Amino acid sequence: MDNTLKHLAIIMDGNGRWAKLKNKARAYGHKKGVKTLKDITIWCANHKLECLTLYAFSTENWKRPKSEVDFLMKMLKKYLKDERSTYLNNNIRFRAIGDLEGFSKELRDTILRLENDTRHFKDFTQVLALNYGSKNELSRAFKSLLESPPSHISLLESLENEISNRLDTHDLPEVDLLLRTGGEMRLSNFLLWQSSYAELFFTPILWPDFTPKDLENIISDFYKRVRKFGELKC
């Protein structure tokens, strides 16, 4: 199996706590978190990764106060419009995964427009997980499989392939490194199928304080690990 880091996935946690430490509103932390997102994305694009997936808004985040959800939706739309040139100038393909039907038509159109404008870039893809949850994604994949089953599935491996091909990430490599900032040690319903053999890293650094240098250190540690993929390494 290839040990090269191709797909990095990040749970961006700690915006609210970062703002609270500075006696600011949570919105202030989210704004600073967007800058970190941009910095990390450009670093990854310049360092030969194939894919960066960022957990931006989960299916559970709708439970937050309406004022915060409304702010996040406005901030997302503004980011996708304002940063279009960043994607184009850095040859970054943009993809969104998740149940996008949960968003307004205006926001969906903004997402699709950026996807279309950057679809010709091949070397690096930034993925935003939006209204995303692994249980939701798998449920949609199973529903698709039941509605249009293949003519026959003779092997369990074939069934796994049929499911993988119906996931939002069907055109992306599996996750190699899954990182969570902010100190919590849980996966929060994020890319559970795709992270079967991912190396897990948890850092106490809050997302707004996370830097490309911090990521470099984590990637260095990643390459020190022996990835067995279920095999016995001699």
TrEMBL record:
Which superkingdom is the protein from? Bacteria
CC annotations in GO: cytosol
Annotated substrate binding lies at 14-18, 26, 30, 58-60, 62, 64, 180, 186-188
- Cofactor binding note of this UniProt entry: Binds 2 magnesium ions per subunit.
Record SUPFAM superfamilies = Undecaprenyl diphosphate synthase
Identify the enzyme class: transferase
BP-aspect Gene Ontology terms: polyprenol biosynthetic process
State the InterPro entries in the record.
UPP_synth-like (IPR001441), UPP_synth-like_CS (IPR018520), UPP_synth-like_sf (IPR036424)
Question: What keywords is this UniProt entry annotated with?
Answer: Magnesium, Metal-binding, Transferase
**TM region(s), chain numbering:** none
> Which cofactors, if any, are listed as required?
Mg(2+)
Provide the residue positions that the database annotates as binding Mg(2+): 13, 199
Gene3D superfamilies per record: Decaprenyl diphosphate synthase-like (3.40.1180.10)
**Might you give the EC number(s) for this enzyme?**
2.5.1.-
A single GO molecular function term of this UniProt record? magnesium ion binding
Task: Name the catalytic site residues.
Answer: 13, 61 (proton acceptor)
Q: What does this protein do?
A: Catalyzes the condensation of isopentenyl diphosphate (IPP) with allylic pyrophosphates generating different type of terpenoids.
Which family does this protein fall into? Answer: Belongs to the UPP synthase family.
Can you state the subunit structure given in the record? Homodimer.
Q: Check the record and name the NCBIfam families matching this protein.
A: PRK14833.1 (NF011407), uppS (TIGR00055)
Name listed for the protein in its UniProt record: Isoprenyl transferase
Q: What is the lineage of its organism?
A: Bacteria, Pseudomonadati, Campylobacterota, Epsilonproteobacteria, Campylobacterales
